[in-house]
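LOG
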Amino acid sequence: MLHLALVLALGVQADDTLVLDGKTWRLLDGVVAQAGDAVVTRSELEQQAQRLLEASRRPDRELEPAEYEELMGVTLYQQLLAMLEAQGGEDLGLAPQDIARIVRVEQREERLQRGAGGFSDLLRQGGSDALDWEHQRGRMILRRIWRDHVLGRRGFGLERARRDEFLRPGKMLAIYRSQGEALGKPTRLRFQEVLIGIRGDDPVATLEYAELIREDVLTGRTSFDLLATQFNPPQRAEERGLTPTFTLDELADPEVRAFARQGSEGDISEPIEVWIRREGVPDPILAAYRLLKIVEYEAGEPPPPFYDAELQAFLRDRIAEVERERLLFTQQRRLFDRAYAWVRPGTPEPLPPAPPQSLTPRRAPEEPTSGS
């Protein structure tokens, strides 16, 4: 470890060579980053990135360059953070023999739970042996201890735990009032869409034409299904203009959301202006209108009353969990910012996750149309 840190300090060339005492040395595995007194090699980074890709159930998907760089950045941040957390646990001054004792206990429990054959299979799947498992488990224990410490759950020596996790009823009620709607069953609906392109560079004529088409559907002179195959782009026409299922909160367009709130199954919207995007930017030349028909509508339910016993238990546990996540995120960022960390030029920058935001995580808003 000290040798690798010395290598970093002296400077490694772009081709993984190092000139030292007039001699050129070639590294067998290039170092891409350093965190405190630990390093990340290129093979470790690539192997962990592959594990993350397999965990996402997309191992065979070809990633775009930007997606690959993002994956490597996320992976590198996780690896550096794991090293810094373990070093933070070491800095608390626990005796190494105490950590080793905990590791032996956990290993014995793991063997009893899995059996001798199952434990051997576990090591084989991870490409490690018992000594490597003990080392990794020791690092995990140090990380747990550091997290407990910064969360105020654990004191050392004569130090008391520093954080009171008691949740005041007034705070719980305030959160319920501001986010309680998300605790109910959301209204879910699905649209069928007809996209009407600009006619003769005249938005007014296009709007009038869209209104005429809507009138033809309402009076039975044509069907919405037929229009969806005639007007939509080829791929959307094959799908009959059907969209995914959305909740009201996931509808980003205010006009679409207003129509969905007031409508019911079978209703057809007034023409709604939409901008077609070209390379991610709205193109005014491609402005158009769309008609939406609600083809599926599942009414939501209001959240339980605040004093419902099950809701109280959920709120208490979930709010405490979110607060721990936010505090841990802050402490992790502080640890990362204050520690010595070096990333080799040309390596994707470590990419931290977004901070925890709300009581109930939601899917990112989407538009009903693929072109808007």
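LOG (cont.) second protein
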Amino acid sequence: MRGLLTKVRGVLGLGAVGGAIGAVLGAGWAMVTGLMAWGAIIPGNMLVGAMVWGGFGAFAASGFGVILGVMGARGSLDDLPLWKAGLMGAVAGASFPFALFALATGGLLNLAFPALLSVVGLCSGLGAMLSFGMVAIARRGDGPSIGGRESSTLPRG
């Protein structure tokens, strides 16, 4: 039971970090597009951008944590190749738009819907960047760990 709670805590932590990063990116994107289109910063657009991109970031990072836990990575993060972390994040990020599209339309009958494919590409790229960056930052952490031994290795299941 303790291993499961450790994994859940890790997934929630990754989701919170991914959501915060996504929210900052979304607010920045909305600010830049507002300046380019209307010549002004519109706070309402920044809030919507932060909420939407924050949701995408939280889902992609949480999905990455779930995939990482299910795949049973038992070593440290130093043993996880960065390309594999990026691939797992891309898969996790791409699953979010597919799930929303399936819920909205009652199935995945029309996968060639252009708007769906563009959102899948965006979320897949965001998930890959988030997972790649989080693993790279975790590898650089040379200072004392806050959580003790378990924060430097992936949880055992």
